[in-house]
Automatic annotation (TrEMBL):
Belongs to the AP-2 family. It comes from Chionoecetes opilio. Pfam families: TF_AP-2 (PF03299). One of its GO terms (cellular component) is nucleus. Keywords: DNA-binding, Nucleus, Transcription, Transcription regulation. This is Transcription factor AP-2-beta. Residues 34-58 are annotated as: Disordered. GO terms for biological process: regulation of cell population proliferation.
Length: 463
């Protein structure tokens, strides 16, 4: 491929393979010659293609395709506005779904953007169209989506990726990569798909592109869904769609739109929104108080997390007993934010404690969201790299074989499950001081132990 280094060419092929089942004849590479001056028209074949195509740029991104998709969708939306006089919701939605939405949906599992600017550009097409619907002119975009009962473009693309992963796990479509997507079953967490491991020696830009691919991002979306949805199997895709849509109706859909970002409690991705709902249900508070810089967001510089009223109350109460001064330092708040924090604490009657009674540990500087993510990452790494099968063979062999060990394993499993349930329902001082990390990591360790003692070798028929 002219103008592309050999290593980058291999990365592009890997990125392309992560997109799912796509007709290769519809993939058009925009490759410029080294001698081509900046600003000159590209010599790629895309100018000659007819019909639907997906354009892969020479830098491995789909920026040109996103621009072309937005141009076609805006042109079609403009033609509809000029041709049809009706602005009634039913007529406008029918025209949108029939003529504009297919342009934005075509093969979106492959090219779904990860850059905020590209997401906003695509969202602007639907935002502009819905503004012309009768009765919605004075509503903001988020309220328009709720009133019309439709998803944002970002949520639609994430939904399509979740459906694609389900189809792969059900063997209804070919795998996008060789043996990359596999189902893993756990009695407590249910079925989950394995995520594609990023190459450690690849350049940062290539890792970013691969992280946004279907093979890596798709399982992350699928795994964030509730257990009862992930466990839907042996049925038609419409049955899974029904269960998925039922859950998505309860998940806030707040796409990044210029002027609205400051109101977002988290990003609009399904995993982040589901995690936020779970945290609010666990803490009993959903009031946003502050944004704080993420401490453990490796590779995601600039990411910010939310701290709610309920979390602040727990931080200044026993057993941590943090003072307002310690909160300012440990939550990475500026002087201006510190004044707001003091006003919030005083307004809500939270007692101003002294730092003499405070209990400081390594967990003190972590928010509850970061503590939960730390436990989740540990379980993911342990299940992948602990060599559970080898350990299980050694343990079972030392106990006289699987037949003799099965009864003992079931008894141990019951005891461990009972212990974890007791810890999870109690707000022990350790749970409060570790910001919820203690019961989560205990559950992760117990799940690993249960997998070890209950693992059974598959029966292989003699050939």
């Amino acid at each position: 491929m002219a103008g592309v280094e050999e290593d980058d060419g291999e990365i592009l092929q890997e990125i392309l393979s992560c997109g799912g089942p796509v007709n290769e004849e519809e993939i058009v590479h925009i490759i410029q010659d080294d001698s081509q001056a900046p600003g000159e028209a590209s010599s790629g074949r895309h100018t000659e293609e007819q019909g639907n195509s997906v354009y892969l740029s020479d830098d491995g991104s789909f920026s040109h395709h996103i621009t072309e998709t937005m141009r076609k969708a805006r042109g079609m939306a403009g033609w509809l506005m000029r041709t049809f006089a009706s602005r009634e919701p039913e007529a406008m939605l029918t025209l949108w779904k029939a003529l504009v939405q297919p342009l934005l949906d075509y093969c979106s599992q492959l090219w779904s953007p990860h850059k905020k600017a590209d997401i906003q550009r695509l969202e602007a097409v639907q935002r502009s169209f819905t503004k012309h619907i009768r009765g919605l002119h004075d509503l903001n975009y988020w309220d328009c989506l709720k009133t019309l009962g439709i998803h944002s473009q970002q949520r639609r693309r994430a939904r399509y990726r979740a459906i694609s992963i389900w189809k792969v796990l059900e063997r209804q479509v070919p795998e996008p990569t060789s043996s990359a997507l596999q189902a893993h079953f756990n009695e407590r967490t249910g079925r989950k798909g394995s995520r594609r491991t990023l190459p450690s020696k690849a350049p940062g830009r290539c890792k970013t592109l691969l992280a946004a691919s279907l093979a890596h991002e798709g399982p992350k979306i699928f795994n964030s869904l509730p257990k009862n949805v992930r466990n839907i199997t042996g049925c038609s895709v419409n049955t899974f769609k029904y269960g998925l849509d039922k859950i998505l109706r309860t998940v806030p859909d707040e796409p990044p739109v210029p002027g609205y970002t400051v109101k977002c409690r988290t990003s609009n991705t399904i995993p982040d929104q589901v995690a936020l709902l779970n945290r609010d249900a666990r803490t009993g508070s959903s009031e946003l108080v502050f944004w704080v810089p993420a401490l453990l967001a490796v590779g995601r510089e600039g990411q910010k997390l939310t701290v709610t009223q309920g979390e602040l109350q727990r931080r200044v109460s026993p057993p941590e007993c943090l003072s307002q001064t310690l909160l300012l330092s440990l939550l990475r708040l500026s002087k201006e934010k510190g004044k707001e924090l003091r006003e919030t604490l005083n307004k809500n009657g939270i007692q101003k404690l002294t730092s003499k009674s405070a209990v400081i540990s390594s967990f003190t500087k972590l928010t509850e969201t970061e503590a939960a993510q730390l436990a989740e990452d540990y379980f993911y790494l342990a299940s992948k790299n602990l060599q559970l099968r080898d350990i299980s063979r050694e343990v079972v062999g030392a106990r006289g074989g699987s037949d003799n060990f099965e009864q003992q394993a079931n008894m141990i499993k019951g005891v461990l499950e009972h212990i974890v349930r007791e810890v999870e329902v109690r707000d022990t001082p350790l749970t409060l001081m570790t910001h919820g990390f203690s019961p989560l990591i205990l559950r992760a360790v117990v799940d690993i132990i249960i997998e070890i003692i209950t693992f059974k070798e598959p029966n292989i028929a003699a050939s």
